[in-house]
Structures are given as C-alpha cells and as structure tokens.
Amino acid sequence: MAFKDDFIWGAAAASYQIEGNTQGIDGCADSVWDMCSRRDGFVKGGNTGFMACDHYNRYEEDVKIMQSIALQAYRLSIMWPRVMPEGTGKVNTQGLDFYDRLVDELLAKGISPWVTLFHWDYPMALFHKGGWLNDDSSDWFAEYTRVIVDRLSDRVENWFTLNEQACFIGLGHQTGMHAPGLELPVKEVNRAWHNALLAHGKATQVIRSNSKRPAKVGAAPCFRTAVPMSNSPEDIAAARAHTFNVVNKQMFNASWWMDPAFKGEYPEDGLALFGADAPIIKPSDMETICQPLDFVGINVYSSEMVRAAADGTPEVVEYPNNYPKTHFDWPITPEALKWGTEFLYERYNKPIIVTENGLSTNDWVSLDGRVHDTTRIDFLHRYLLGLKEAAANGVDIMGYFQWSILDNFEWAEGYKQRFGLVHVDYETMKRTPKDSALWYKSVIESNGKSLGEASALQGWMKPSDFNRNTC
What we know:
By secondary structure, the protein is of the alpha/beta class.
C-alpha cells in the first residue's frame, strides 16, 4: 500500500536555525534569540545562531541537495527582523529579497515552498515594547504578514502562521528555557498565549484577503500526545482523554491551542483549572482566533504512554529505564504518529499534516566519507509505518515533513543535537547527505510503498515491560 497519490513528501527547517548572518548583515536586526545567545550559560557551549549553517549564502547549494533527494516540498520560515528590522514600519528590501530568491530557487527545482511566518525569531525592537504581552502584538504580526503575503503569494500557496506556540510562549515566557528567557506568573503567560492566538487569527485573515493565489492555511503546533498501553477500548479511551484534557498549567495541553483555533472556544476544564489566571477574552476575540483552516498541523517526536486506571481515568505509565531513546533522551514511540493523527482527526475533522518529525543522533562522517545514520532510518521507518496505519484506518493524511533537512542550531542545546538528513561540518560548512537522505529519497519515489505494510509496525511496548501495579 502507498499513500494517496497527492501525498506531500517534504522536509523542514527554521530561519534562525540555519540562515545565520544575523548581526546587522544586509540590514538584519536582532531577534530575542540573538539576545539570549549572548547571555552567559543560556545556550550550551556558548553557541549562537549568528552563523548557523550559513544558509543565507548557501541556499542554492541546499536547494540542489533537496532536489537530489527528490524532495517535493520544503517548509521554510521567514525571519521577521530580517524583513522588518523594527518589527513594524520600514521593510528591509535586502532581507525580503533573500526569501524572494529562495522561493524562486525552490520552484525552479520543482520543490513547493511551504512558508511558516513565525518560527521564534521575534524582533528585539518589539520585545522592548512588551512583545507578546503587548495587546498590540497581534496587529504587529498582521502587518508583518501583509508584507510577506504581498511579496510571495504570487508563487506561494501554502502557509503556516505560527510554529509551536507551546514552546515560544511556554518555554519562552513560563519556564525561561527558550528566548526571551522569561519566567512569568501564569496570568501573564496566558495573556501572551491569547495574544499569540489572536496573531494566528489575524494572520489567517490577511492571507485569505490578500493572497494572489488560492491559499491553504494552517499552523504547526506541538503539544502533549498519548499512546494507549494496549489496544483495549479502555486504554484507547484513556489515551484519547489524556491527549485533550488540560491536566496542568503548562502550555503543552493540546486543546488549549486547538480548541480556540478550530472550535472558537477554550476548553472548559482549562478555564476551570486556570481560574482567575485564564486569558481575558474581549468581545469578538474568539471569532478572530477561529478562522477557517485547511488542515491540522502537528509537530510530534514522542508520546506518553497511558492506560486506564481502575476507575477508568487516564494514568501515565513510565517507560522502563532501558527503553530506546534519542540523543535528546526522548522515548522512541512510533505509535505516536498513528494515535496522534487518529485522535486529532476524530476531534477536528480536518486533513492532517505532520509538520515535524525526526530525531537527534550523534552523527559523524565516517572514514569512507559517508554518514551512516542507521538509527535515523530505523526511527523514520517505524514512525512512517505508524502514519501509514492511521491512513489505512481512514485518517486523511495530507503530507509529512521530516525534521530537519540540515543539522542546525538546536536552540538552547546549541549544536549538540543533530536532526538533519544532511550533515553539516560547522567549521567548513561542508554538507554531506546522510544515508537517511538516500533512504528518504527511495520512500518518496515509491510514495511510501518501500516502507512495507502498516501491519509491520513494531514498537518496543509490551505489557510485560510494565508493572501494572505502579504508575
């Protein structure tokens, strides 16, 4: 069995993680990640994204590599302060021209550009005005969106508004792990959260109103997902409930983003949990946030395991110490793509796009000049079989974007984590396609037939691995 004929096979990357050339070069201004990269101890190894992979100067080489592995689509992001150094007002023509050239290069090589408007590089000039805490922030984002749409929508038809709001708000404004490195009370976190949702809605309106070509619009959120410990109806129901319940005051609860965007309301259990710290909702806010979207995007790497407790409520089961994990210490859970997409499709009834999926490994160039990342091949194979099973079960899967096309600056982890299909030597900037890139090419060219049947999916989860008498 293959995926449907119009299935989209792609890979993704983010502007700040690969472009470099941020320090005033060609008019580019600082983002909050430039600020945090200068903060002692914020990024491992004292690394910065100032040069990253030098994609800004090497994009033609990178697009040629994408073509060589049969990539059909590339999810790129725009660096807001490269295009608008002050965040609003004057446009930096040199910065905007770069994305113009990149889109043209992609199209010339037969690769469809899928543009993400915001992937965390928030302009410092606007951070100084309060950033996402400022109630004008959604209008700033709408103004920026208009600039990008006016320039690129004669060629770009597919758009993502925001990437992983749970990270840039939750990790950026609540835990302080990501830029801008704030640790705010929950009330202020939810204020920033609500303003970002308004930004998503207003950006969608701008795209719909101003696109020069028919546009498809969505977002690329991440959130807690769950897989059932067994295929019993009770465990499946528990995993479904755990996926959508607002279980804590962190920002990784799926329905805290998805319900406003797709249903025009915050979930009742979340409003009850947050109480007086819940977002302040002004008249027409939810109508602005809940714009018609063409698909459900999901960035997924791993899932919690859940079973039904004696009373039927969801109970998280810890993975054993010897359970397979990535270099990032994330559990490898191929069933995440099966159950995650099935649960989302049931609840929101929209086509699903996997907007990110991949793993970090400690790759290096071997003596033969190649990068033999067999664990990445095995990981992607297993996860794609999970996605294939969801498709076989009737879930409308539009496409899949592997993360990432290049090894790159992994935020607070610096250059420790390598997610790429292509190895980057950060001293010389030499690109070396890994064995996984050639393997992914064969998957694309067969439209998934080379993966085998979905029934071949083999995870590592066996009831005997877990003690049902403990959590």
